[in-house]
Amino acid sequence: MTLPDIRTSPQLYARIGGALYLVIIVAGIFGEAFVRNGLIVTGDAAATAHNIMSSEFLWRIGIAGDLFMHVCDVPLVLILYLLLKPVDRNLSLLYMIFVLVQSSVLVASKLSLLTPLFVLGDAAYLKAFNPEQLQALAYLAIRSDSYGFGVGLIFFGFALLALGYLIFKSGYLPKIIGILIQTAGVCYLINSFALILSPALAGTLFPYILIPCFVGESTLCLWLLIKGVDQPRWRERAVALAGS
């Protein structure tokens, strides 16, 4: 099926973008809050290993959900690029590149979440290690993913700074959403750099530092899904871009 040209159907693209964003938010919350937070016991490798192996299918569902979330990132970033290109073509492209780099980093990081399934299995070559060593290796892989997640969000933070500016300047999306998205970008950057530079500070800030991120991204998601863009204003900017 071929979608209509965005020049004739910007509202359709906005609604599809909102739906994709909603899938991403729900999948992200499920993987983090209901899978990993439910199975990982902070500082206890043995308990974490036991939880993962006793709920192996749930752990795999969490990984699959994360990967599907990043698949949705690709069409979403393209839609937002097309919707916001009339504001600033180069900045919209920069936003898209930042998000694609973020998604690449996070997808690569998900390999670390598969590692516990390997090292906690019953393969013959694992007999060279005692159970405590295997549990420690599994926990180390999980910790590696949490830092990979933080590194990926550095790129996403900069992407949201660009996206927020584009929304603020667009004239066909509410300025307040642009401000909320830029605030989310700053919070992501603070959280990620604190994780790298001062884990103790990051532990104090988390999860409160991510509340503005949830508010900003959820607001944009619901606005695209329910209201979309101001079509006359969007077409006015698109015609100006085409004539430049």
Overall 3D form: elongated
Helicity, as a percent range:
over 70%
Individual helix count:
9
Question: How is the main sheet built?
Answer: none
Pick out the low-confidence regions: none
Order of helices and strands: HHHHHHHHH
Query: Could you say how many structural domains there are in total?
Result: 1
Averaging pLDDT over every residue, what do you get? 93
Beginning-to-end CA distance, first to last residue: 32 Å
Task: Please state roughly what percent of the residues sit in beta strands, choosing from under 5%, 5-15%, 15-25%, 25-35%, 35-45% or over 45%.
Answer: under 5%
According to DSSP, the number of beta strands is 0
Structural class: mainly alpha
Q: Cα-atom Rg, whole angstroms?
A: 20 Å
Based on the model shown, name its key terms.
244 residues; mainly alpha; 9 helices; 0% strand
